[in-house]
Structure formats: C-alpha cells, structure tokens
Design goal:
By secondary structure, the protein is an alpha/beta fold. A seven-stranded parallel sheet has the order 3-2-1-4-5-6-7. The two termini are about 20 Å apart. Helix content is about 40%, strand content about 15%. The radius of gyration is 22 Å and the shape is globular. It has 15 helices and 13 strands.
Length: about 425
C-alpha cells in the first residue's frame, strides 16, 4: 500500500508535526508513505515538495488579499479565515500517480484550492482527510467559537464585518464546498472524539464517513529522562520547581495566556513562598515579552524546533499548563505526558480525552482561572507527583504509540479502498 500524505507545511504547526509523525509510524509498520508539502526544509527522502515557482507564493498572497478585501482591509481575522480559492494541482505529480491512497491533512493557505481537491476526488483515488480543526466541516473558519450555523448552512459569519449576511463570503464558500463534495465520498478522520462529534453535526460532511484516531508520537524518543541534566542543558535553574507553558506563538489568545497569567497571580498571592521556589519556563515565539510581567520568575526559551532540546525542555518541567480556549488534540500535551510531566488544562475540546483528572493531571473548569490555579497548586503541593508521572507515560503508551495509531489508519485505508472499488 502506498500513501501520499498532503500537508501545507513540513514541520511548522501542530498539523505538520502530526502528519510527519504519522508518515514515520506508517513506514515503520510496513506501509510506504510519503509526505507532499509546499516547501521542503529537511533532507528526508520520504518528503517531497511541490515544484518550485512563483505561483506557490502567489497562491498564498492572492487568497490573503481576497480575504483582506472581504474584511474591509482589517487584519483582525485575517488568519482565522481560509477560503481555498488558490492552490496547486497535484494530480499530475508522479507521487500522486503512484499512490493508492491520497491522505489530506491541513491543506490551507495556498496549498490546495477547492478546485484542486475536486480534481483529486475526480481522479478516482480513495481520499482520507484528517481534520486537525473544524475547517473541512465549515465554510471558512477553523474553530466555530460557539457559532452553530455550520450544522445547517454557513451564513452571517461572526468573523466577517457586521456579522456577515445571508449571502456573505461564508455562504458562498459553503456552496462551493457543497458542490466539490457532490457525488464524492471522503473518509474523514478526527484526532479527538470532541472534533468527531462536531464534524458529525455538520450540514456539509455530517453524512460522510467519520472516524476518530488520535495523533501518534514516538514514545521511544519522547520519554522521561534525568531532570537535573535536562535543566542544565536548557539553562534552567535546578533549585526551583518549573511550570511550563508552550505555544508556537505565545501571544495567540486561543492558547489562553491571559488565564495562565491570572492563575499565576492567584498562586503567588495565596502562596507567597512560591516566589522563592517556583519558576515559569515559556517556550514559543514572543516568550520574551512576558519577562517581568508575572510575580514569579520567568525564563523565556523563545521558538525552538530542535527536537532534542524540546525533549529536554519538557523533562525540565514539574508541570505543563495549557489553558487553551479551543483545541483539538494538542501535540504539546501529548509530548509532555510522554515525558512523564503532569498536565493542567481546561475542560474543552479534546483536552479532557488526554488529561485524566487527578490521574495524570488536572482538568479545570472552562475559563476558570481560579480552578486552573487550584489544579496547579494541587500538583505542586498535594498530589503524588511520581504516580501522576507514571500514569502520564502509561497513557501515551496505551493510546498514542506509533504502532497503535498506524494499525487504526491502515483499517481506514482498507475501508476507503474497498468503498471505492464497490462504487466502481
């Protein structure tokens, strides 16, 4: 079986990391998998890039310009909307022709247009599409943020100026997506049960095949190691307990930094001694902006893409906190758990599927900074830390190992191929 995994980026963003890990998991399980990306940055033979040319950049810029115009030249929601009106035709590539399965992942921002996806569907090859957010099930948004229009038909989009209209951009893209899917079947896969339930409500794809399979992780690479040595490698203090916050872009409000700050302020106020023995490590872009803004010492680590250093950073922590306001199945929580680090997060999205309350971490009530602080204090001062750590490692080995995930995907591939043959 030959599988072509299609993703916009090779290694930037959670979807890229997940797609890359799935490629490796499949190859280790005997499936011949390649990954097609817009721009290749590694020297891996199993990763190929679109043919170079000015169109690659133009596709991205043209889509952004069209959205910018629709937003009345406001940048407020510029990167929260995707309309897939520009992209590359991949059906003539040799990697496409030799593949038995076309496996789409995150294909936005100029990678594939709706017209390109329709060409893929019309090629006759079975298509599997892993959803890393809600975009395939909505018109233009990646997260619905409480909007339920996608359960019937997108319109009056809250991301558009004035709340949109009955025939706004979302309504028009919805119609195009509906046309794209007409007389075609896609086997959708969601990374969390939460996203799967949301997808099944969609008036666009709700009647398509939808399975739930988590992202994989190599738990022979992401694993517990000596904490003191890890901290020395990262330049972090060895005489403090470390709370870790991670986000590709720390200022992304969806990741809940505002609630994290409130929780830290509550902790410092209620437990003044923490100012002496607890520090905060922040991994991600713009982390330096928070130095001096909290009552506990902050150690900004910036943006890091070296896997060995990332593993050292996780192993340096006594606790990982991710108070996301919307999230699917965060790779960061999976990575922390694999390294034996107890986690704290809100009861939202797929996070409660990863963090087992008071077994490998703490699930706080949604948008409740006080409960978030309570969970952090519980892990630091009350819980059996080693028991939490052991359960974290066990959770990953049981649910997210490469072998387990690869087996589940092979079953979906076989089902997709059988369905295609039956329809023919």
């Amino acid at each position: 079986m030959r599988v072509l995994i299609v993703n916009s980026s090779e290694n930037t963003g959670g979807a890229a990391v997940a797609a890359h890990r799935l490629k490796d998991a499949l190859n280790k399980s005997g499936v011949k998998a390649k990954m097609l990306v817009r721009e290749k940055v590694s020297d891996q033979l199993t990763v190929v890039a679109l043919p170079k040319g000015w169109l690659l950049r133009w596709n991205f810029l043209w889509e952004r310009w069209c959205i910018f115009w629709r937003l009345h030249f406001s940048r407020k929601h510029l990167f929260e909307i995707d309309i897939a009106n520009a992209g590359s035709d991949i059906t003539s590539l040799p990697e496409f022709k030799e593949a038995d399965i076309i496996h789409l992942h995150w294909i936005n921002q100029g990678m594939l247009s709706l017209k390109n996806i329709q060409a893929i569907l019309s090629s006759g090859k079975p298509v599997v599409w892993t959803m890393h957010d809600l975009w395939p099930a909505t018109a233009i948004c990646h997260y619905a943020r409480g909007c339920t229009s996608f359960t019937d038909k997108c319109h009056h989009c809250p991301l558009l100026p004035g709340g949109g209209s009955s025939n706004d951009l979302s309504a028009k893209v919805w119609k195009r997506k509906k046309e794209m899917l007409k007389n075609h079947s896609i086997h959708f896969v969601t990374c969390s049960k939460w996203l799967g339930n949301e997808a099944k409500k969609s008036g666009l794809i709700g009647k398509q095949s939808i399975n739930t399979i988590p992202n994989p992780i190599d738990n022979h690479v992401f694993k517990p190691q000596d904490k003191k040595k890890s901290r020395e490698n990262c330049g972090l203090p060895t005489d403090k307990r470390i709370i870790l916050f991670v986000s590709q872009r720390v200022t992304d409000r969806r990741k809940g930094m505002d609630y994290f700050i409130q929780a830290i302020e509550t902790l410092a106020q209620e437990h003044p001694k923490m100012k002496e023995n607890v520090g905060i490590a922040i991994l991600g872009g713009h982390s330096e902006e928070f130095v001096g803004t909290l009552p506990l010492p902050i150690f900004p680590l910036g943006y890091v893409n070296d896997e060995r250093k990332i593993i050292d950073i996780y192993n340096s922590a006594d606790m990982f906190v991710l108070p996301s306001l919307e999230d699917n199945l965060p790779n960061t929580i999976m990575e922390a758990l694999a390294c034996g680090v107890p986690c704290v997060g809100f009861k939202v999205g797929g996070i409660p599927e990863m963090i087992d309350h008071k077994q490998n971490g703490y699930i706080a009530e949604y948008q409740n900074a006080k409960d978030l602080a309570k969970g952090m204090e519980w892990i630091l001062n009350e819980a059996d830390w080693q028991s939490l750590s052991n359960h974290a490692v066990k959770k990953v080995a049981t649910c997210y190992s490469q072998q387990n995930v690869a087996i589940k995907y092979v079953e979906v591939y076989q089902e997709a191929m059988a369905t295609k043959e039956f329809n023919l």
